[in-house]
Specification:
- The structure is a single chain.
- With about 450 residues, the protein is an alpha/beta fold.
- Strands 1, 2, 3, 6, 7, 8, 9, 10, 11, 12 and 13 form an 11-stranded mixed β-sheet that branches. A two-stranded antiparallel sheet has the order 4-5.
- A hairpin with a 6-residue loop joins strand 4 and strand 5.
- The longest helix has 20 residues.
- It starts with 7 loop residues before the first helix and ends in a 9-residue tail after the last helix.
Length: about 450
């Protein structure tokens, strides 16, 4: 047989493709230790360097929709957890919207029937550097990070990530998250929107965002939080009155001595409950397993386990797991943890309000949904309602109950430019407390439809 010669242009294309494809294959997760059989979707994970000079690299985990669900046409959703300083792998992936849960042995996994990758391709990001497996070779970065650098690094990550995964260019793209990601999500959304201005077909085809139990506006958040504590019988009348007088969070991010004192009284009056889920038990362990974050739930005996963080810490510190997900490749000099106390305690900058960004992005016509689990006392439903009310948006659909299989799943109000949804009986991490209802909410968000108002 005669020899075959590939045309020069074809050869160049093949070489370029080989380089790109090889890089992509390096990030493919072949199999997770302890995973259940018959996994029908692809996963990728690894690092994207966002600052060469400082040596900052962010760790990501992509979970694609199952091939049978037409993953090539499904949107891409970036998920961010908050803290600040907490891991999207520990929370978003491992106990909220990801495809797997971790068994109590810390070694094996089981499937999450309400995983959001049934509807979309999910991109989890551990952000900023110093959180989870994300790292910086410049130690001072961990002590100086704040909102601005977090948003800028996340945008740099996205630009480079889309080059690594060109099949997702021009795909419908959303940003979602919870808690302090109430800052991360709007700030990153604003950067993406403003960078896209003037581009006819932007690579990052940004459509909107979704946030839950989100830190939004310091003044309204704290007024609403104190009211929630009082109205749910967690604090005394006298303490409520003193909190309203002593704590002014509309002009400063640092509480006064008088405010700190009465906050300590309020904490004492609340007692040993989980503030992130006020009606449920906590994990039986000395001290607060969840540090400054998170909570848990009794009415779902099989679906819910209040010790999930413990299992995550066990699983993601296993060398074979880190190898499988291409993590800790530089030998980080500390154990992987669910939250970074250094990053959280030394947070450098945080605007008092996200409402100006909301106004800008609502005016731009982006899709914006805000949801709230109504048993969270840390960023409670009353706080979110006060913040939304401050936007003074016209109402399209008045407050109404939405239904899941004939039962009230929560309540909703549709404004011009924003949809608000509550999830009944859910704490701070809505997809963990109410996984089925959270998936329904996510579906209606993607479909741009109001929550179902019929009990039939």
């Amino acid at each position: 047989m005669g020899s075959f010669r590939l045309p020069v242009l074809g050869l160049v294309s093949l070489l370029l493709c080989s380089a790109a494809c090889y890089s992509l294959e390096e990030d493919r997760i072949i199999e997770l230790p302890g995973q259940p059989p018959n996994v029908e979707f692809s996963q990728y994970s690894g690092y994207v360097t966002v600052d060469e000079k400082a040596g900052r690299a962010l760790f990501y985990w992509l979970v694609e929709a199952p091939a049978s669900r037409l993953s090539e046409s499904r949107p891409l959703v970036l998920w961010l957890n908050g803290g600040p300083g907490c891991s999207s792998v520990a929370y978003g992936f491992a106990e909220e919207i990801g495809p797997f849960r971790i068994h109590p042995d810390g070694k094996t996994l089981f499937s999450n029937p309400s995983a959001w990758n049934s509807l979309a391709n999910l991109l989890f990001l551990e952000s900023p550097a110093g959180v989870g497996f994300s790292y910086s070779n410049t130690t001072s970065d961990l002590y100086t990070v704040g909102d601005n650098r977090t948003a800028e690094d996340a945008y740099t990550f996205l630009v480079d990530w889309f080059e690594r995964f060109p099949q997702y260019k021009y795909r419908d793209f959303y940003i979602a998250g919870e808690s302090y990601a109430g800052h991360y999500v709007p700030q990153l959304s604003q950067i993406v929107y403003e960078k896209n201005k003037g581009i006819k077909n932007p690579v990052i085809n940004f459509k909107g965002f979704l946030v839950g139990n989100a830190v939004t506006d310091d003044y309204h958040d704290f007024v609403g939080t104190f009211e929630y504590w009082w109205s749910h019988g967690l604090i005394s009348d006298a303490t409520y009155r003193t909190l309203r007088v002593s704590c002014d969070f509309g002009s400063s991010t640092h509480p006064s001595d008088a405010c700190t004192k009465i906050l300590n009284v309020a904490a004492s009056e609340q007692g040993n409950i989980d503030p992130y889920s006020i009606y449920t038990r906590t994990c039986n362990e000395t001290g607060s397993l969840r540090r400054n974050l998170r909570g848990h739930y009794p009415w779902m005996p099989r679906a819910y386990d209040p010790c999930t963080e413990r299992y995550s810490t066990m699983y993601f510190n296993r060398p074979e797991v880190q190898k499988a997900i291409h993590a800790n490749v530089t030998g980080i000099p500390y154990r992987w943890d669910t939250c970074s106390n250094i990053v959280g305690n030394y947070w450098a900058d945080a605007p008092l309000s996200m409402l100006p960004i909301y106004r800008e992005l609502i005016a731009a016509g982006l899709k914006i949904w805000v949801y709230s689990g109504d048993t969270d006392s840390v960023v409670p439903v009353t706080a979110t309602r006060y913040s939304i009310d401050a936007l003074k948006l016209p109402t399209i659909m008045n407050w109404y109950p939405w239904y899941d299989n004939g039962k009230v799943g929560g309540w909703s109000q549709v404004y011009k430019g924003l949809t608000f949804v509550t999830v009944r009986g859910a704490g701070h991490e809505v997809p963990l407390h109410r996984p089925r209802q959270a998936l329904i909410l996510f579906k209606y968000f993607l479909d741009s439809k109001p929550m179902p108002s019929s009990s039939n």
